[in-house]
Amino acid sequence: MTRRAALALSAFLPLAGVMPRAAGARPLRIVCLDDGLAETFLMLDVTPVAVADREVWEKWVVEPPLPPEVADIGTILEPNLEFLQQLRPDIILSIPYLDGIKPLLERVAPVTTIGIYTPDGQPYQRAVEATRQLAALVGKEKEGEALIAATEAHFSDVRRQLAPLSARPVYVVNFLDPRNVRVYGRMSLFQDVFDRIGIRNAWTGETNYWGFATVGIDGLATSSDARLAYLEPLPEGAGGTLTESPVWNAMPFVRNRSIMRLPPVLMFGTLPSASRFARLLAQALMAESARG
Fold first, then answer.
1. Rounded CA separation 168/223 (Å)
2. CA distance to 9, 10, 11, 23, 211, per residue, from 4 (Å)
3. HSE-up of 206 (CA within 13 Å, CB side)?
């Protein structure tokens, strides 16, 4: 390990309450309570011993696939503490959203909190910083820098691909029900990706610090030439109800047939989710363009 890497690691590990591992020592047993941090570990070829709620991963994260040996400790706000103790983790990685249960987690193992989504915004930059922090924890500094560089290179490639298609803005939404959506804007990971691939976000309204606003479908009529990209999964029955809705059918993007369906992307993710979103949006925009 280089002197610089050792200094970075020693600066981080006291926060976690974990001493540096000697060369050849067993890997850290890491429990990850945030899917964004877990997806970063997987891209560094590090497998956590457990995450919260595997079903959420399968439904919203999708890739990278979660290895079958990763244990499920229950819901994010009510993890199974008895099972967690049986796993004998060296460290539990958490996020500010879970500060309320931190004292309970600390009875099991040292807890380190890493915030990606905060009132200060800039989730992409925080994801870069978190990548370096996690890479230092597990001695994967080179892999961490490679992941950051590959993500940036991917954005540059997508930006070149989409340059001819960048004139019209795009809404990105999740349907909550047939009448209401989460629309992503300022403070979101998706906005940071938009900025890097040269696409304008059609939503310019206020958002919370997670980067979204909850609005009725009629709230998406603020841009007459916008395209709509909506993320799977859809609520049950939403598709049929939408097609029968006068409000939906009056939307400019419906009349213009400028609607794109995207596979799931973790909207509160880190670099892997940012890269997946850029790729899937680029594929959808190019397919829409080819349809004419």
1. 10
2. 9, 10, 11, 17, 35
3. 2
Same fold for the pair 3-150 and 166-291: yes
- CB-side exposure of 38: number of CA atoms within 13 Å? 31
| Rounded Cα gap, residues 8 and 171, in angstroms | 40
pLDDT at 237 over 60: yes
| H-type alpha helices, 91-173 | 102-105, 123-137, 141-162
* CATH for 3-150 (3.40.1180.10, 3.60.15.10, 2.30.30.100, 3.40.50.1980): 3.40.50.1980
Residue 53 backbone phi and psi in degrees, to 5: 60, 80
What digits encode the pLDDT tens for the residues 262-287? 999 999 999 999 999 999 999 999 99
Measured distance CA(251)–CA(173) in Å, rounded: 14
Q: What is the mean pLDDT of residues 188-198?
A: 98
**Domain map of the chain by residue range?**
3-150, 166-291
β-strand partners of 201: 170
What's the pTM value of the predicted model, to 2 decimals? Answer: 0.89
The answer to whether the beta carbons of residues 274 and 193 sit under 8 Å apart is yes
Task: State the architecture of 166-291 in CATH terms.
Answer: 3-Layer(aba) Sandwich (3.40)
CA atoms of 265 and 39, how far apart (whole Å): 12
* CB within 8 Å of 92: residues ≥ 6 apart: 30, 31, 33, 84, 105, 108, 109, 110, 111, 112
